[in-house]
Amino acid sequence: EETEVSERDLIAQTHEIEHPDGLTTTCVFFAVDPRIPPVLVRTTQRERLLGKRILIAIDSWPADSHYPLGHYVKTMGETGSKDVETEVLLHEHNIPCAPFPAKVLACLPPEDYKIELEEGRLDLRGLPVLSIDPPGCKDIDDALHCIVLPNGNYQAGVHIADVTHYVKAGTPIDLEAANRSTSTYLVNKRLDMLPSLLTTDLCSLKGNVDRFAFSVLWEVTPDAEIINVEFKKSIIHSIAALTYQQAQGMIDQPDDDEDIQAGAVKRLASLARKFRAKRIAAGALTLASPEVKFVLDSESLNPTDVQSYQLFEANALVEEFMLLANVTVGKKVLRHYPTLAVLRRHPAPNRAMFDGLISKAKCKGFAINIEDSKRLADSLDEAVVEDDPYFNKLLRILSTRCMSPAQYFCSGEYKPTDWHHYGLAAPVYTHFTSPIRRYADVCVHRLLAAAIGVESLPVHLSSKSHLHDLAANMNRRHRSAQLAGRASVQLHTLIVFSGDNGEKEENAYVLDVDTNESAEPSFTVIVPRYGIEGRVRLSHLAADDRNIRRDSDKHSIGYKDTTIRVFDQVRVKIYVNVVQETQKELMLDLVHPVFGDQPQVSNGASADATEAPNDTSKSPKSNTKLPKRKVEQSKSGSARKSRRKGRN
Asked: Hey, which residues does 18 pair with through a beta bridge?
């Protein structure tokens, strides 16, 4: 990193020129994206722009110039400011964040719009419907119910916000939603696909108010055998908007026939366990990711802590019913529109993608079989270290990364054998359950409405070429939203560890060891407590030190009497290193085991009071990669929806 900084300084010194007019200076612009070369910008505002985040446009790259030429567009703000850096990451990932234009807002119903029973809708307001979401969730897409029928079976229902009642095909609000394609969830804010009147009010299935829904109703035996299914446009009245923790309390409490809410949640949980067991038996994978949540200050929304995200059985309950609804709707739409269905596929991984993980697992005595998802699921289930429960989760995290991402597609563009969703072991899968925040679900709602004969299919959904373009944009926007979310996590994690008590000591697991003989000795770790990943550099050792032992087969590195192997637990110190005034990086130093004559990085103080070494350039250190995230309720109500749709 020091070399990189000096290279920047050298470039700036070489190419910065004060022009004879005495007014303008050619400055060097260094982009946030490292793939973009330095850009030469002539400006009269050099002093005003130093230390600022600015936007420029590249104009040309003359043959006799080392670097492209550009011009100043606008100043975004002070480098390092949370709000400015958030604006930067949104721009970098091309996330639409402009206010909704007047023509879009003109499509909205009036503020005092009354939701009343319409002809053709099934009145389900007498059912004990309830929702289960993270604390502070405002955009509630889904709600559930489960009652006992006279014959002893259950009626279970998934009720999804009827977004297409308000968003008509081809209108400006529909075209805007199609362009945005997804809501984007950052740590401290949410950028909605639809205006707030719909997102957090009329479409949101809040408690104790009437709402329009698209309902999937199953008759199910107590053993989770599906007898029948119906699809209905409906009106519902949710009796409760529960958090996951509240729902978990109901699952755990003793049976009480008088408690309608708890009875419904308990029946749903019972069915969910059985649905899950069937999915697992069919080969569905249980994967994992190092997700975290931030605790935000209620006034400033600055992060005060970062914690691993706790999952309850209630999360799995909701996940199972969302998966069931998505599979059920996918099959229904496909039967009626075999070449026009908007589906989601997850291709099977090839062996080369898993070679590294297979080799690492072998070092611990476990065989990973990837012939099909069932064999992979079974081999992951068997890979258990009794005194180390995190090891199995770690294997699942790494397995997730060996797979290609799932993709939206039009059924007419692929053979039926290619529709398969590998992670869910589902021959057909779609997205139906989150139309407030995903445009794919809006398309599927229209297809389902046409399939059951309550509405005609919009003309543009009858065109495979249009569906192809829609799917391509949805895939692109989905990926961008993910990357923006991760960048937001990185920004807020830096803020947490930049605080007065930012330095922490924590346990970490070795994910990978660099066994390249000519490379700087190093290994990569994950810190479960914070979901942080990073490379620990053993920079106090020379690459050609004869005492270093590297073993690529055993994924280990040793020095004298100490050996570090893949999946070993080590202790690291986490802190922020200020490279220069406008550039910070999260670092990991090895604390234990002591590896060679490494500098002392801990004085024996507690994890909350460790001191940084005086010379960090000679400490075993790391640049880090940061986790996916979940967010606790913030004052703005921009809490992220929990991961509950499985690997979908």
From this structure: 25
